[in-house]
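[audit] Reproducing an earlier prediction to check determinism. Same input, same settings, fresh worker. If the C-alpha cells differ from the archived copy the diff job will pick it up downstream; this log only records the rerun itself.
[audit] input (251 residues):
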Amino acid sequence: MTPELEDAFAAIREEYGRESLRRVESMLEPGGGSPRHPLRRGAKWILPGLAETPWHDPRGHPEIAPVVAAFEEAHPAIKEELNGAWADRPEVFAEYEHYLTRQADWRALYLHRNGRLVEEAAEVAPTAYRVLEEYAVRTGTLCPLLECHFSTLLPGATIAPHCDLWNFSINLHLAVDIPDGCSITVAGETRSWVEGKCLLFDYSFEHEARNEGIRPRTCLLVDLWHPGTTVPERAALTVLVTEIRRLMRDG
C-alpha cells in the first residue's frame, strides 16, 4: 500500500477499532482472503464474509428497501420523463463505457458519476434525480465509487457474459421501459424485468443481458453498498479504490 493508504487505514482503525478493517486487509492479501466461486473468477476483489448470493430480494435489506420503494413509487413519472428525453434530447444518451467495453447499441444517461451527482441530469430526468439524491446519496446507501445511469439496450443488443470488479457493492435495476423479449442472466439463472419493479443482484457473479425485442429496453441502474459492509469498511474501500484510480491516471 502507498503511504497515503496506510495513513488513511490507520486513521480508520483508530476511530473504529483495530479489527474494523480485518476483512479489507484479508481481501488485499495474495489469493484474496478466501476461495473464489467459479462464476466470480473475473472479479478483481472479493471482500470475504459477505453473503454469496447472486440474486437478492430487493425489499429484503432494511437499508435498501426504502430506495426500492421510492423508485418503484416514482416509476410512472420516471418513465414519462425518460420517454420525453428520448423524443426531444436523444443526444444526452451517450454510448455506455463499461470498464471492459464500449458499445454503440448500449446507451446511458448518467445521474451520478465520478463520485458526484451529474447536475445536468436534473433537468432531463428530475424525478429520478430527486429520488436518487434523497434516498441513496444523502443516506450514504449509494456506492460513490461507481455510478447511477439509465441503461438502454437497443433492439438486438446483447451484453456478453462478464463479472464486474468487486462484490462490496450491489446493483439495483428499476425496470423503466421493458419490451417483450428482454432478459438478464446472473450466475446461470435467467430472469425478466417487470416494468415498474426492481431487481437486485451481486454483479461480481457472471452476468449477461439481451434485448430481443423491437424497441429499446431501459432500466435505471443504481450501484449501492452491499448491505453486509460496515461503515469503516466503506470508508476504507472508498479510499483504496480512489487511490488506485489516481495512481493509474498518474502512471
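[audit] rerun output stored. Observation attached for the diff report: The CA atoms of residues 23 and 48 lie 6 Å apart.
[audit] end
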